[in-house]
Amino acid sequence: MIAESLNMGVGSVFTIMTEDLKKKKLCARFVPHTLTTEQKEHRIASSEDLIAAADEDPNFLKTFVTGDESWCLEYDPETKRQSSEWTSPGKGRPMKVRASKSKTKTMLLVFFDSRGIIHHEFLRQGSTVTDFDHDATAGRFITSEVLPRRVFSLNKIIHTTVGPNAAAFLSSFTEAVKASDFSTQLLDLSQTTGHEYSQFVYKYSLLAQQSWGSENPEIASIFASRSVSQNFLNIPLESMIRICANIMGRFLHFEGILKEENTHSLASAYAKSYEDSAKRRMSSKQFKTQHEAIGEGFVNFVNSAVRMTPIRAWNLAIHFGNSFTLESIEHGSGNF
């Protein structure tokens, strides 16, 4: 193309490019996605915060549970080096029938912490790792027998992917809440300590988990509430808005409910649920605390938008606790 545009010989162009200009022609490297400058800076800041937390607390990294996945072939032949043998002098090279990798493969999901593998599971043949499959497996592993034995030493479970719909949900929810004086007054917990709100979250979560048929509802409620008191002395309005949006946006995303076409409507309905709860609190003869009104708005939306199951109840508890942890890492831990 360069030779044609300059009306020069291909050899001359090649010599100029490689010898005179010292250029190389390199193939593009495929990457999962590109990041904006703001996203890169945010990742650096979050990584620095995590490093600082790990330096301050030797047990910090021991509190995480994460997971990964890998394709496993039904038959994976050994390489030539793997099948090499020791032979005597004068003996020829051993022969090996050429074999190709099996076309049949299945996905292996593994969850692990600093001490090793906690749970692994093979998906059914032909399955791919959608967010729903990943989260459903997480729910099964969390409610298994092994996690309750470790739960009191665990604080955080990490989900690795969040789609753009969850970010759009956050934006729409924030806009809707700030447009309502009722909602902003309700969600402003700047005068509430993290310990006080954590106690309420545990009690209210326990009732909700029981109503949804959750296994080990007490443990699920610990996951939901523990990070509140651990990460916040108080909870300013801006933080509470982001936390509420991230809890629900991530939960709906991982359950496969949040789509591009319904993101705005779900976020608006979620915000309205809080507004309606605040209005009922103001007009009701039976006094409700601010915390109870927040809990009512949250649970009413969940019950109206999602067909809750025991696994989904557990997943919601995890997203609830994670959102408080991520907020403290990304934006700080409130007004001290």
Give an overview in words:
Pfam families: Transposase_1. This is Histone-lysine N-methyltransferase SETMAR. It comes from Nephila pilipes. GO terms for molecular function: nucleic acid binding. With 336 residues, the protein is α+β, with helices and mostly antiparallel strands. The protein is 55% helix and 10% strand. It is built from 13 helices and 6 strands. The chain has helices at 2-6, 10-20, 37-56, 131-142, 146-150, 164-178, 181-187, 194-211, 217-231, 237-254, 263-283, 290-305, 310-331; strands at residues 64-73, 105-113, 116-122, 156-157, 189-193, 234-235. The strands form 2 sheets. It has a 4-stranded mixed beta sheet. A two-stranded antiparallel ribbon has the order 5-6. Helix 6 (164-178) runs antiparallel to helix 10 (237-254), helix 7 packs across helix 11 and helix 9 (217-231) packs parallel to helix 13 (310-331). The radius of gyration is 27 Å and the shape is extended. The N and C termini lie far apart (63 Å). The model is unreliable at 151-155 (pLDDT under 50).
